[in-house]
Amino acid sequence: MSNCAMNYLKEDTIVALSTPVGKSAIAVIRMSGDDAFDILNKVFKTSSKKNYQIKYGYLVDGNEKKDEVLCSFFYAPNTYTGQNLVEISVHGNPVIIKEVLNLLYKTGARPAEPGEFTYRSFLNGKKDLAQAEAVCNLITSKTATSAKAALNNVRGVFSTKIKNIKDSITNLLAFMEVTLDHPEEDIMFLSREEKLSRLEICIKDVEALLKSYKASKTFQNGIKAALIGKPNAGKSSLLNAILGKNRAIVTEIAGTTTDTVEETIDCHGIPLTIIDTAGIRKHTENSIELLGQEKTREIIFSADILVWIFDSSFPIDENDIQLANILNNAKLSIPIIGLLNKSDLPQKLVIDENSTLLNLLTSKIKISAKKETGIFTLLDEFAKIAGINNMQDINLMINSRHCTLLNNALEALQKTKLELSSKNADELACFQAKVAQNALNEILGINVKEDILDTIFSTFCIGK
Ligand SMILES: Nc1nc2c(ncn2[C@@H]2O[C@H](COP(=O)(O)OP(=O)(O)OP(=O)(O)O)[C@@H](O)[C@H]2O)c(=O)[nH]1
Ligand SMILES: [Mg+2]
Questions:
Q1: Residue 404 has pLDDT above 90, yes or no
Q2: CA distance 432 to 410
Q3: Superfamily of domain 222-385
Q4: 463 pocket-lining for ligand 1 (C-beta < 6 Å)
Q5: For 110, phi and psi rounded to 5 degrees?
Q6: From the CA of 314, which ligand is nearest?
Q7: CATH 3.40.50.300 domain position(s) in the chain
Q8: How large is the average pLDDT for residues 88-93?
């Protein structure tokens, strides 16, 4: 199957299931193209005489009724794709869906490629590229906070910011070019200082957007925290306390958890995946536990944050030392939060101020997984490590493509500034300002190469 944007035809009529595959009350099949209404009318029988936008009836193949449906008609150009578009609500049974799709293929529609509805919306100028990309983010957002940010991008908040910066550069360029063409005159010109100060504003605006990139990434992709520690330290108890439900088995037997248990929560708007692991200890005969410990060692390398849980009702023992050695040898560059658990019991744990063990820890927090104390402090610590302040909100989704282009724009603007500051180098200044303009245009999808569009839209699901 080709999912290359270059092969996407704009004119023919495409059809796809836009809801998940499976059983549901209703499934929605979407069809877009000049012939969408003609194709549908060949197989749609309705008694509705009025020109309603939504019509009730049956999809038929000759005399055979395929399903009882509702069809919503959207007339070009005010539609998602900018073309004639129909949404057919069928019964959500995979068998029916397949039959209906086959019927529509037979009648002249072709299966849509991934992201092709949104691609058409981009081609027809309904959405710029940054807006179109955000449709995908909006669907895959894992927390309300990131969904809100993605919605702002779809609405065009991010695009407007880019356009404003671009307009300022265009305006500035006009003044710079006039200086080039009429170097002897000095009326109507912006002074060098004025040009520089306008340029500085553009630079600040681009920098502000770039600052949101790290947070955007965290909110979109989330972070992974692995709970590690010796058996019986209270890892599974902590997972349950954070989730507020009994997800993992907790017993007083050391070596209870043998396989990893994973859950994702909303931590200050960040999708935080917490992984409970098998406890690491020096001696065990249990082969399942040994396999679990192997898995724990692998997870240590794939996590963004480690949470090392100690049993503070006992002194440090050989199992803690064993884990310290593993972590030391792993030479990790990720934060390790030390949790002194069981703070409800008499405290026996002493971490020697000079020990390598202490050096491994980024921070120390006292908790009791059993009494559920210290949990909020831990969640705040996660957010802090992720670079998110307590009340910080994120308004926009800036992806890695935007980040690269914003960096290109920033570099070009800084070069423009350099050229402008050193006298009589205005041609080079104009050239660099145009480089910045082009980078910003590319964010919006202006003059973007087909293969870039291909890469972006092929990551979408079919039916989007
Ligand atoms: N008093 C007290 N007991 C706790 C606390 N946290 C856990 N425990 C107890 O410690 C025992 C072990 O807890 P688990 O959560 O199963 O420990 P684990 O680290 O998952 O152990 P493994 O799965 O064997 O590696 C259980 O009996 C818990 O009830 C705590 O904060 N205070
Ligand atoms: Mg456990």
A1: yes
A2: 10
A3: P-loop containing nucleotide triphosphate hydrolases (3.40.50.300)
A4: no
A5: -120, 155
A6: 1
A7: 222-385
A8: 98
- Number of C-beta neighbours around residue 266 at 10 A: 14
According to the model, what pLDDT value does residue 190 have?
78
Contact in structure between 437 and 202 (CB atoms under 8 Å): no
Residue 2: what pLDDT?
A: 40
Q: Could you read off the pLDDT of 110-140 as tens digits, one per residue? A: 999 999 999 999 999 999 999 999 999 999 9
Mutate to test the pocket of ligand 1, among 227, 236, 237 (most ligand atoms within 8 A of CB): 237
Q: Which residues contact 321 (CB under 8 A, 6 or more apart)?
A: 357
Q: Whose CA is nearest to atom 9 of ligand 1?
A: 234
- What Cα–Cα distance (Å) separates residue 447 from each residue in 134, 275, 440? 19, 44, 11
Q: What is the DSSP string of 379-437?
A: HHHHHHHTT--TT--------HHHHHHHHHHHHHHHHHHHHHHSTT-HHHHHHHHHHHH
Q: Is 279 in the pocket of ligand 1 (CB under 6 A)?
A: yes
For residue 196, what pLDDT band results from cuts at 50, 70 and 90?
Answer: very high
> What does the alpha-carbon distance between residue 385 and residue 388 come to, in Å, rounded to a whole number?
7
Which CATH code for domain 138-218+399-445?
1.20.120.430
Q: What is the DSSP letter of 217?
A: H
Q: Does residue 174 sit in helix, strand or coil?
A: helix
Q: CATH topology for 5-126?
A: Gyrase A; domain 2 (3.30.1360)
Give how far Cα 143 sits from Cα of 6, 148, 153, 375, Å. 34, 9, 16, 20
Residues whose CB is less than 8 angstroms from the CB of residue 45 and which lie 6 or more positions away in sequence, other chains included: 57, 58, 59, 60
- DSSP-derived letter for residue 25 is E
pLDDT exceeds cutoff 70 at 389: no
Decide: 370 in ligand 1 pocket, CB within 6 A: yes
Give percent of the chain above pLDDT 70: 94
Mean pLDDT of the chain: 90
Q: In DSSP terms, which residues pair with 88 in a beta bridge?
A: 29, 71
Q: What is the whole-number distance in angstroms between the Cα of residue 249 and the centre of ligand 2?
A: 7
Identity of residue 395: N
Question: In which residue ranges of the chain is CATH 3.30.1360.120 found?
Answer: 5-126
The tokens for 241 are 């306390």
Residue ranges with CB less than 5 Å from ion ligand 2: 235-236, 256-257
Q: Whose CA is nearest to atom 27 of ligand 1?
A: 252
Q: Which amino acid is at 432?
A: Q
Q: Enter the tokens of residue 11.
A: 């004119």
- Asked whether the beta carbons of 342 and 368 are under 8 A apart, the reply is yes
Measure 271 CA to ligand 1 centroid, in angstroms. 25
Return the higher-pLDDT residue of 19 and 287. Answer: 19
